[in-house]
């Protein structure tokens, strides 16, 4: 078994030596060290500022998104206000139209009432005028009747009595005749 371990040790050393010849282990170690140094330098001088710029950009984008959201909310608020104002304007217009309609109806009723009152006044004036004209006509007929009666009486009697006595007599007869009705 010793020989076996010895062979295995010799094989391992030989393998590493053969691997070292093929891979050049020293170059790998130097490359890893330089790569690590390069990564540290990049982290300090490139990644930090680059990440700072990226963070600023992300913050700027977030601010712009917030501003856009605020603008959207403001626009929505203004739209609602405009809709409310439009609704109020429509309501006011409807109210104005309704008031105008009511006022028109009121004025129509007032005009009808005034026209009826005027018609009543005209009827009363016509009735008064008719009564006055009737009285005038009756007075004219009486006057004519008196004149004719005087003329007839004077012809019948053959003598002429004073016109005033005759007139008084006839008017008294007419009044008595009118009362008898």
Automatic annotation (TrEMBL):
Subcellular location: Cell membrane; Endomembrane system
A Pfam family annotated for this UniProt entry: ATP-synt_B
Keywords carried by this UniProt record: ATP synthesis, Cell membrane, CF(0), Coiled coil, Hydrogen ion transport, Ion transport, Membrane, Transmembrane, Transmembrane helix, Transport
NCBIfam families: ATP_synt_b
Family: Belongs to the ATPase B chain family.
Physiological role: Component of the F(0) channel, it forms part of the peripheral stalk, linking F(1) to F(0).
Name of the protein this chain belongs to: ATP synthase subunit b
Lineage: Bacteria, Bacillati, Bacillota, Bacilli, Bacillales
């Amino acid at each position: 078994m010793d020989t076996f371990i010895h062979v295995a040790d010799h094989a391992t050393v030989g393998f590493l030596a053969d691997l070292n010849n093929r891979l050049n282990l020293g170059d790998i170690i130097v490359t890893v060290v330089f790569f690590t140094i390069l990564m540290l330098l990049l982290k300090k001088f490139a990644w930090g500022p680059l990440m700072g710029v990226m963070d600023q950009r992300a913050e700027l984008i977030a601010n712009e998104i917030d501003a856009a959201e605020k603008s959207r909310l403001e626009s929505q608020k203004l739209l609602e206000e405009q809709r409310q104002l439009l609704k109020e304007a429509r309501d006011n217009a409807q109210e104005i139209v309704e008031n105008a309609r009511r006022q028109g109806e009121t004025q129509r009723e007032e005009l009808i009432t005034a026209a009826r009152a005027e018609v009543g006044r005209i009827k009363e004036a016509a009735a008064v005028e008719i009564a006055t004209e009737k009285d005038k006509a009756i007075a004219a007929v009486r006057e004519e009747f008196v004149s004719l009666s005087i003329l007839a009486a004077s012809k019948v009697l053959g003598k002429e009595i004073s016109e005033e006595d005759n007139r008084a007599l006839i008017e008294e007869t007419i009044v008595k005749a009118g009362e008898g009705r």
